[in-house]
Design brief:
The complex is a heterotrimer of chains A (264), B (306) and C (309).
Chain A (H helix, E strand, L loop, with lengths): L25 E5 L6 H8 L11 E2 L2 E2 L5 H6 L2 E3 L12 H9 L1 H4 L3 H6 L1 H21 L15 H14 L4 E5 L7 H16 L3 E5 L3 H7 L2 E6 L2 E6 L1 H6 L1 H9 L1 H16 L1
Parallel strand pairs in A: 1-6, 1-7, 4-5, 5-6
Antiparallel strand pairs in A: 2-3, 7-8
Helix pairs in contact in A: 3-6, 3-7, 6-7
Chain B lengths: L2 H36 L6 H17 L5 H30 L3 H27 L15 E3 L5 E3 H23 L1 H11 L1 H6 L4 H27 L4 H18 L4 H21 L5 H15 L14
Antiparallel strand pairs in B: 1-2
Helix pairs in contact in B: 1-5, 1-8, 1-9, 1-10, 2-3, 2-4, 2-8, 2-9, 3-4, 3-8, 5-6, 5-8, 6-8, 9-10, 9-11, 10-11
Chain C lengths: L1 H35 L7 H17 L5 H22 L5 H21 L1 H4 L14 H18 L2 H12 L1 H6 L4 H27 L9 H14 L4 H18 L6 H15 L4 H12 L25
The chains are: A alpha/beta (264), B mainly alpha (306), C mainly alpha (309).
């Protein structure tokens, strides 16, 4: 169903990458630091522009759509770092996701359409609470993000993305820095979401995790796909092993062009 | 000889513009250094500038000190006033406020508070009128050039000092160990702190240099004009905003170029154009440059965060 | 009976002060609504000038009815504010602040030079007094209500997200540009209202009225009071209009005391004085939280809608 094709020309960060994610598919994205994983997520979520290539979502081309429209098409994401707003409670942070549909009506509607606002507020609150329950944090809604340990804070971010009711979920190292128990919880959650038919792209360093939960894996290096297939196949791939183990410094070199893209 | 007086007049205007531009350079360099390095837009800079002129007036009017010692003491005083703001306010704001934008806002308001205090000290002590050091401390001599044009030794001194200060600051930031620390802090205060750069010391010394430069400008202007008042500080501050924007925040060379450009433009408008539009030049430049090229017209930033 | 008499005599003695506070409150709202949305714009002061000339001249020269003149002035500034926000769309933080300061001061320079319209250095004088304190008071109430709506519920959370993390906001369907434009336009309209009422109440306009001092004053009001909420702006407007009058009694150093208070509040009370009120309120309800002592700026804005819709 979903066909996210990405192809960069000229810039090394992503060099002619093509990939497609199906409903219910949990695609693992691996590669050394600076291989273009985060850049790829940024491209799919329209945080950065492609220099060439196309993006399609359910047959609709959104290559030049503004970033907020990518979310409207059903693409939600988390970020590499915790990006919760400190001035709001955890529940309100998740409500930012739950209210996405209403927000698309624009500032005047959300400001002045009071009868609808009342209903929306209730609905968003309920949806946010459900999303929190889904990630196993149902009692933390009233806390503030800065009071949460790192692991739960990252789960709140997954809840916020889920509250958008996405069709495609992009996860940028969601379990980095989590305890082993928390990792497994997140792994189970992602598998369940996949069974429910959600398409997901998971950027992850933990190959064990990838093998456990993903049903397809793409390995990147220097912005190019070096291997693609079932988790076990990719893990055994010669090029992948070399990229991970052989040249640790290779990743460092590749990170420079990526920064240039980020800045544009 | 009908052309000669006009040529002399023009030469005189050019000299005036260069002297004005030199004072602006000294003034703007300090403001640019603080903003480029520490993200502090110090609105007390104009007040510190006047404060130094006041100190020189106070130190010399009884004949207590001669020119050079008074200049040094006033520069130190101006630097100390700026450091006081850093130590009492900016430092706390920098470490306590997680949100950079809010830190900028609070520093802005704290510096307004500092400006109000300094302005009040000066106007209370001077009776809120114009003041200036006595003419005896610096024997002004005028050298006649062609026609009616002339230049005084204090004017020459201002130009020379401004050029030396600009070159010196440029070299300091680029070459010296301390300068490298300043650039490191400007680029990434957290990491440079981890790498062993003493961020708080860098901040204090940067603010001292910034204040001392404003002080240098203030003293030279006070000696040149022998009439200064509190309100002048604000005029210089607003013009310096334009210099920073046109030259690019944190760029020494950009600031110098922009200072002379604006000085020439303002002098020309006053001399030959619609005089009352003079103040508009700076504001129009700010708007135009920010619309077209927000990073400044000239040099790329040298010690500003990317 | 005696209380009524004393209230009315107190009012008579302080009417000008109250009028000034109300007008400054509108101006402070103008800056606050922008800052709360993460837009470091001080353009409200420029629109204060434009609004005062527009309303003042329409009433004086064209003999327009007051209400119509005020509405025209506000709509004109809404349009200009929108245009300015489109022009300055790329600018953020201190750069936006400086651009809008330049805009404000440019308005002053134009007003000074456009003598045929504004009277130039002589100013526009002899505008008939055409608004009452009550009208302004009701306007302030109405504006406060609109701003209160804007900082709660969906739009309240959205604007906080726009302020704190634009990229995150975009990833959650927020059309950041539209929301910023709304805040900018509302800010322009509030500035225009303040200027229009000032002209129609105090009968004259000088080109220097909306100068750097007014910019500094408006910004100070908002930051000292607290930019997280309209209540902070209101508190700032009250205190900074009233305190200088009180402080004159302590003699020639009052300005220095005022400056010192600004440094202390800006440095040590990140949420502004209104956050002290909020904390005191929480403490009295027995769930005090030491927000002030916490690192960071959590106290800056009150939770956008914790009370529900």
């Amino acid at each position: 169903m979903k066909d996210a094709r990405v192809a960069f020309g000229g810039v090394r960060a992503l060099d002619g990458v093509s990939l497609t994610v199906q409903d219910g598919q949990l695609l693992g994205l691996i590669g050394p630091n600076g291989s273009g994983k985060s850049t790829l997520l940024a491209a799919i979520s329209r945080m950065i522009d492609l220099s060439s290539g196309t993006l399609t979502m359910e047959g609709r081309d959104y290559t030049n759509a503004p970033a907020h429209l990518a979310n409207a098409l059903g693409i939600a994401r988390t970020f590499q770092t915790v990006r919760l707003l400190r001035t709001m409670s955890v529940l309100e942070n998740v409500m930012l996701g739950a209210q996405a549909e209403w927000v698309r009506r624009g500032p005047l509607a959300t400001w002045l359409w009071l009868s609808r606002a009342r209903r929306e507020e209730k609905r968003a609150r309920r949806a946010a609470q459900q999303a929190l329950e889904r990630v196993g944090l149902k009692d933390l809604g009233r806390r503030h993000p800065q009071e949460l340990p790192y692991g739960p804070a990252r789960k709140v971010e997954i809840a916020r993305a889920l509250a958008c009711e996405p069709k495609l979920l992009l996860l940028d190292e969601p379990t980095a820095g989590m305890s082993q128990a928390e990792r497994e919880e997140v792994g189970i959650l992602l598998s369940e979401l996949s069974k429910d038919g959600l398409a997901q792209v998971l950027v992850e360093h933990d190959l064990a995790m990838i093998q456990r939960v993903c049903n397809r894996v793409v390995a990147l290096n220097f912005g190019q796909v070096i291997a693609e297939g079932l988790p076990a196949q990719v893990a055994a791939d010669e090029l992948v092993r070399e990229a991970y183990l052989g040249h640790r410094d290779a990743g460092m070199e590749a990170s420079a062009p990526m920064m240039e893209i980020g800045r544009q | 000889m009908p052309g000669a007086p006009a040529a002399g007049e023009m030469l005189q205007q050019l000299i005036n513009a260069i002297v004005f531009g030199s004072v602006l350079t000294l003034f703007a360099l300090g403001l640019s250094l603080a903003w480029g390095t520490l993200d502090v837009l110090n609105l007390a800079h104009g007040a510190v500038f006047i404060f130094a002129g006041y100190l020189t007036y106070e130190l010399t009017r009884q004949g207590a000190l001669s020119f050079v010692p008074a200049l040094i003491v006033s520069m130190v005083g101006a630097g100390a006033a700026t450091v006081a703001l850093e130590v009492l306010a900016f430092r706390f704001i920098r470490t306590r406020f997680a949100n950079k934008r809010q830190a900028e806002l609070s520093m802005l308001v704290a510096s307004i508070g500092g400006a109000i205090i300094i302005d009040q000290v000066v106007s209370n002590e001077t009776g809120a009128t114009t003041f200036g050091p006595p003419s005896s401390i610096f024997k002004v001599r005028e050298y006649h050039l062609t026609g009616s044009a002339g230049i005084t030794n204090i004017q020459i001194l201002i130009v020379v000092v401004a050029v030396l200060a600009a070159v010196g600051l440029d070299q300091w930031v680029r070459r010296s160990r301390q300068g490298r620390a300043v650039r490191a802090v400007a680029y990434d205060p957290v990491t440079s702190g981890l790498l062993g750069v003493n961020v708080s010391f860098v901040a204090i010394s940067t603010m001292f240099v910034a204040g001392a430069l404003a002080g240098l400008a203030g003293v030279l202007l006070a000696v040149n004009l022998r009439a200064e008042e509190v309100a002048v500080g604000q005029d210089y501050l607003l013009t310096a905003f334009a210099i920073l924007i046109v030259g690019g925040v944190g760029s020494v060379r950009g600031a110098v170029l922009a200072a002379y450009l604006i000085a020439i433009a303002e002098t020309a408008v006053v001399a030959y154009g619609p005089t009352q539009w003079r103040d508009g030049i700076a504001f129009l430049l700010i708007l135009l440059v920010l619309l077209v090229r927000p990073q400044g017209l000239f040099a790329k930033a040298q010690f500003q965060r990317a | 009976m005696q209380t009524i008499a004393s209230i009315s005599s107190w009012y008579a003695n302080n009417e000008t002060l109250i009028q000034e506070i109300l007008i400054y409150a509108l101006l402070a709202f103008s800056i606050q609504v922008a800052l709360r949305s993460g837009i470091f714009s001080l353009a409200g002061v420029g629109f204060y000038a434009i609004g005062s000339y527009a309303a003042g001249l329409l009433v004086k020269e064209q003999a327009w009815p007051t209400a119509l003149a005020v509405i025209a002035a506000v709509l004109l500034c809404a349009l200009l504010g929108w245009a300015l926000s489109v022009l300055l769309v790329r600018l953020r933080d201190l750069y936006l602040a400086l651009a809008t300061v330049a805009f404000d001061l440019m308005v002053g320079v134009v007003a000074l030079n456009w003598s045929s319209l504004t009277g130039g250095p002589l100013g526009t004088v002899g505008i008939p007094i055409s608004v009452t304190t009550l009208t302004i008071f009701i306007t302030v109430l109405g504006a406060a209500a609109m701003l209160a709506l804007m900082q709660r519920g969906t739009i309240g959370r959205t604007l906080v997200a726009v302020r704190e993390d634009e990229q995150l906001a975009r990833s959650l369907s927020v059309n950041v540009r539209r929301y910023r434009e709304l805040a900018f336009v509302i800010s322009s309209m509030l500035g225009a209202l303040a200027g229009a009422y000032h002209a129609l109440l105090f009968t004259d306009i000088q080109a220097t009225d909306a100068g750097f001092e007014l910019i500094v004053l408006a910004l100070t009001m908002v930051v000292i009071g607290g930019f997280g909420s309209w209540t902070g702006a209101l508190l700032g407007a009250i205190l900074l209009t009233w305190i200088p009058i009180e402080l004159t009694s302590i003699g020639q150093w009052w300005d220095a005391v005022y400056g010192a208070m600004m440094i202390v509040v800006a440095t040590f009370i990140p949420g502004g004085l209104i956050s002290l009120v909020t904390i005191a309120g929480r403490a009295s309800r027995g769930r005090a939280r030491p927000s002030l002592l916490r690192r960071g700026s959590a106290a800056a804005a009150p939770p956008a809608s914790s009370s529900g819709a």
